[in-house]
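1st attempt posting a full record on here, be nice pls
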Amino acid sequence: QLQLVESGGGLVQPGGSLRLSCAASGSTLATYHIGWFRQAPGKEREGISAISSTTDTKYYADSVKGRFTISKDNAKNTVSLQMNNLKPENTGDYYCAATQGLLVGRWFQSRTYGAWGEGTQVTVAS
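the predicted structure (as tokens):
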């Protein structure tokens, strides 16, 4: 059974960078589409980015385009999210999630994904 563990969160000043990692065990990520979600306090989980396992297509929310980059390392069984020029509104708990189902048009919906990590906290503040 696929298990996901996020790491790399922390406290960073506005304009700073963080690199989140999603490590998989129990199965290979090569056959899963992977998404990253953010949940701010009191708000619903929001799709930030995703990467397709079949086409390598990368998806981004408009709010992070040009600042965040998703990448996949099948050899290490990890997916990373490089976050640059962070803003206070990027604060929240970040989760990675996996699915083998249809991703196109649905990558940003949490119900698309069946496996989730426990999350890692990101705080952007001066």
